[in-house]
Q: What sequence folds into this?
């Protein structure tokens, strides 16, 4: 299955600033997914990113707040913009498994906004 | 819509104890069912899966059986180790749709 490198692993940011999270996959994939995992909560899908087109956002998430880039088939970034303490979460990227079913996840970015 | 309900954690056990983490689901069709594990500081890893009724998924001593009649997919292990301490997520996926996850259950195993 694919291996995903995600960075940064954690960050503490000031409110009102932005943070860009990067995910690099060791193989070409059609779709990449971005999730948010709030403390004690399930994973919530933010958006699906296809190469060469705009990301598709889930209800409650907008491009101005969470802009996503997908410049090629192995890389994507998620930016958390104009951060507030409510954005403190773990953010994960994911790709679909190759033949084994299930999905592969990056190691996550633990974001704390102060 | 689809949903997954897991038992609340944390589950705290002594080493070599038996583990059961309950998971039930609601779905409109015939989903595939998954258990993922998240070790401290890491992303989610697929632990096991089952794609149809009565299938049993197994890996690393963990097992779960797809029970359509009770819409359940409980995770079990006969003898847990300290290294099993992690958060476990039950999930379902219908066809090519993106998975729906439960809230996760934290497992703490003491020596």
A:
């Amino acid at each position: 299955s694919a291996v995903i490198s995600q960075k940064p692993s954690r960050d503490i940011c000031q409110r009102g600033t932005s943070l860009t999270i990067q995910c690099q996959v060791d193989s070409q994939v059609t779709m990449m997914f971005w999730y948010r995992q709030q403390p004690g909560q399930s994973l919530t899908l933010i958006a699906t990113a296809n190469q060469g087109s705009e990301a598709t956002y889930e209800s409650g998430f907008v491009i101005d707040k969470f802009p996503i880039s997908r410049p090629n088939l192995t890389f994507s970034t998620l930016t958390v913009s104009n951060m507030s303490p409510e954005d403190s979460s773990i953010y994960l990227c994911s790709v679909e498994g190759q033949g084994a079913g299930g999905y592969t996840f990056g190691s996550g970015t633990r974001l704390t906004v102060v | 819509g689809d949903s997954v309900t897991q038992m609340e954690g944390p589950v705290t056990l002594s080493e070599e104890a038996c583990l059961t983490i309950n998971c039930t689901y609601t779905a409109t069709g015939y989903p595939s069912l998954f258990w993922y594990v998240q070790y401290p500081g890491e992303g989610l890893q697929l632990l096991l899966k089952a794609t149809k009724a009565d299938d049993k998924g197994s890996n690393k001593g963990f097992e779960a059986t797809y029970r359509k009649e009770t819409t359940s997919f409980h995770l079990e292990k006969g003898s847990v180790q300290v290294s099993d301490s992690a958060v476990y997520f039950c999930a379902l996926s219908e066809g090519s749709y993106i998975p729906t996850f439960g809230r996760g259950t934290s497992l703490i195993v003491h020596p």
